[in-house]
Amino acid sequence: MTRVTAPLPRRLGTFLLSLFWAVLGLSQDASPQLLAQMDSLVLAAPRTYAEIDLVLRPIRKDTALLNTFISKAKASGYLDGLAYALNQKGRVYRGVSEYTEALSLFQEAHRTAIQAKNVEFEIYGLNMMSVVFRRTEAIKSALDYSQEALELAEAIPEPSTGIKRSMNVSLNSIANIYKLLEQYDLAIEKYRESIALDQELNNKLGLAINHQNLGECYEAQGLLDEALENYDQSLAFNEQIDSEKGRVICYYSIAHVYVHQGRTQEALSLLRTSLEKAKTLGDQKIMATVLTNLGWTYLNIGEYAQAEAELTKALELSKTYHFPSEMAEANKFLSELWIKQDNYQKGMAFYKEYKNFEEETNNNLNLRYVNDMIQRYESEKRASQIERLAQENESVRQRLRKNQTMLLVSGIGILLIAGILYILYRQYQLNSEKKLLTLEQTMLRSQMNPHFLFNSLNSIKLYIINNEQKNAVHYLNKFSKLVRKILEASSQREISLAEELETIALYMNIENIRFNDEINFTITVDDAIDVHQIKIPSLILQPFLENALWHGLSSKEGEKRIALVVEPGEKGFINIGITDNGVGRDQAERIKQNKVLKRKSVGIDITKERLANFSKDFLNSFAVEIIDLYDGNNAPEGTRIVLHIPIE
């Protein structure tokens, strides 16, 4: 469709007049003036978001007025204005959780931007679609659109303020996806990049959102003071821009930290305020989150009737709008609620529902695919940077070719050498990362071997068969907590010694069922050691304990003991000793040779490789010492393993 345009002076004059009306706010009061304002905008046909937003900003939340402008833009073929209005209408629907309608509008806006050859609105539309997919937990699509938007923006040599704002949205969206995948360090890095852009643009809304997200990352890592600091900063920015939605999110986030800190009454007050404000906003996802947090808080202080009421409301709301994460959370807390009241039947029913929704959420996230996408994105980003550098170097070579032939040859040679060195360096990095990933995967398989899982569940099944419900639930809780800890630890390069000891205690508790509680397992920590400050590779102690159980104690008669002792070592080291009173290594080897089915343990070898990798960042290297123990008659009386782990 051809659009008739006015001569340039007339177009500029009418557009400046419309801007004057927008600044004075007259469009909100007089309908004829507003219609005239729209006509002036269509006639002037500005192309940037900032110019169009200056006129239409007062009506961007009014779908009826937006529809009027959409009709005018379509009739005149004003594609840039049409893309703006469609995006704003989509944002209105997204704000009230009407995601299907919102996505349809964003897709139409994106197609319109491509037709108009307007890169700014094309990037904007991609970002808007990514937000919808992220909120509906279609993470693969969300990451695709955010990456495409960021790549388009970064390809522009001198981006405008509008493009920079879109880059910021893309960075924030990618960081949100990293956070959803529990890649908190990557997420924090992206949020900080986004905050730097926000500060450059003086974007207080962006600063409010990014500090809120930073707080959630720190809270997930257990850093409550840092989390609270960022939530307070976010709240301050939301107060400055008078964002009611932002305030609600900050309130329930601060309340969540308060519950962890034992400040439950302050938390309840904030959550009740949040609930009333959320009802006014009409954002169903926020309401479901607030109700869940409110129920969880009542559960923590033992007000079970109130907790049940709020959690039931949250569950019903989440089911109505299909929020898998909120459904999982509500079912989990309802399961805890009934178990605390000794109603194990209801507790198990809600627990099963929780696992079902958790599985659905995990399936939606498609973790393996998305992690591959993350790696692909980072690689493509670096490749794009190299390509741009190569183009710049080619331009320099063309200018020098006329009079500096020898210099050109030298430059090409240096470039080739740099490229080869970079490729070799990247190859070395990739090989190291691949080796580390392989070790972590092999370690996880050794921790979660089928024999352990089957035997543990079989032992719990016997309690159920014998109608020992309390024991069954007790050990099932321990087993599920152990599996969760193993899975969580497997995604971290290092954890605190306190977390490792807690995981080991759970593991030994489960294994002891199969030994009829014959094993006396003790953990002793020297007072001089702060187990919360010392970091070690995750899950390194279990292979040594498993070795002691199955090679040292499984064939022993009588009293069976394993003692784990943590004590200071030489300067820069701690020593972790694992002592059993088993049959000794020689006897264990003879017994193993006589078995038809030989149990091959690779866990210790994997652990040594992981410790070697871990030690690269320290002044000293690790050491593993194996000591055979003998009594006064030189008869074997067990084995002691000592791990010398560097801490400086």
Jot down its keywords:
648 residues; alpha+beta; 5-stranded mixed sheet; two-stranded antiparallel ribbon; 73% helix
Cα-atom radius of gyration: 31 Å
- Low-pLDDT segments: 1-30, 366-370, 443-448, 596-600
Class of the domain at 450-646, according to the CATH hierarchy?
Alpha Beta
How does the major sheet shape up? 5 strands, mixed
Alpha carbon gap, first and last residue? 71 Å
Mean pLDDT: 79
CATH architecture of the domain at 450-646: 2-Layer Sandwich
What general outline do the C-alpha atoms trace? globular
CATH superfamily of the domain at 450-646: Histidine kinase-like ATPase, C-terminal domain
Class from helix and strand fractions: alpha+beta
Instruction: Estimate percent helicity.
Output: over 70%
Spatial ordering of strands, largest sheet? 2-4-5-7-6
CATH topology of the domain at 450-646: Heat Shock Protein 90
Q: What's the β-strand tally?
A: 7
| Strand residue content | 5-15%
Number of helices: 26
List the helices and strands and how they pair.
Blueprint: H1 8-24, H2 31-44, H3 49-56, H4 63-76, H5 79-95, H6 99-116, H7 119-135, H8 139-154, H9 161-180, H10 184-201, H11 204-220, H12 224-241, H13 244-260, H14 264-281, H15 284-300, H16 304-321, H17 324-340, H18 344-365, H19 367-400, H20 405-447, H21 450-465, H22 469-490, E1 494-496, H23 497-514, E2 519-525, E3 535-537, H24 542-553, E4 560-568, E5 573-580, H25 585-594, H26 603-615, E6 623-630, E7 636-646
Parallel strand pairs: 2-4
Antiparallel strand pairs: 1-3, 4-5, 5-7, 6-7
Helix pairs in contact: 1-2, 2-4, 4-5, 5-6, 5-7, 6-7, 7-8, 7-9, 8-9, 8-19, 9-10, 9-11, 10-11, 11-12, 11-13, 12-13, 13-14, 13-15, 14-15, 15-16, 15-17, 16-17, 17-18, 20-26, 21-22, 21-23, 22-23
